[in-house]
Amino acid sequence: MNPTIELLKSHRSIRKFTDQPVDQATVETLVQAGQAAATSSFIQACTVIQVSPGERRNKLAEMAGNQAYVAEAPVFLVFCADMKRHQLACGMHDAEMKSGFTEQFLTASLDCGLFAQNVIVAAESLGLGGVYIGGLRNNIEAVADLLELPELVYPVFGMCLGHPDQNPEIKPRLPLDVVLKQDRYDDSADAERIAEYDKDVKEYYRTRTGGTKDMTWSEQISGMLIKEARPHMLPFLNGKGFLKR
């Protein structure tokens, strides 16, 4: 263990923030930390849009499922997978970019994930806290219109940042032997191990909610995955020039 590993293992989602502002220099430092993340083939395909408090932010909060902390957080960032600048780069050399490939969608989206994880870890190292907002994809076309996103750019998720005004427990993760395999994929013991893990998650929810939430991890997952998962995403991404081949 060292301070870096301790910081990573202490991550919690923070949804309540104090009124203390986060200065712009800090925001820019966090984004620079994000830029330092690994990027596939040096494509650097993540663009971050900082949305100030006000009407536009309030609309994003509504579009994300009426999550009040989207409107209230001192800082709100939207991480966008962006292949438009690559089209520009090709044009600078009179080259026609071949776009729409699934591989481009994957690498641009993964770039955003790596970038954002650097941002939130850097923020936590400064005593800040935050939470990812995947709910923007609930109304992704309206979000894209609100942010004036052009073709080849789509919003992957948002992120609230600020000084924490809560101290939640660390949510237990799956047992290591369920996620770390040796030499081959062997899940012969996973059901048993997940059943044991379910007890930890149930106790976590009971403690965190004062008994109002009584659910295991496998119950939560089974309840979620019997439903459609944002089927509007594919036609939206096609319309933005992604996932065409």
TrEMBL record:
It holds the Pfam family Nitroreductase. Transmembrane segments: none annotated. One of its GO terms (molecular function) is FMN reductase (NADPH) activity. Its EC number is 1.5.1.38. Residues 9-163 form the Nitroreductase domain. It comes from the Bacteria. Keywords: Flavoprotein, FMN, NADP, Oxidoreductase. InterPro entries: Flavin_OxRdtase_Frp, Nitroreductase, Nitroreductase-like. Belongs to the flavin oxidoreductase frp family. This is Oxygen-insensitive NADPH nitroreductase. The gene is nfsA.
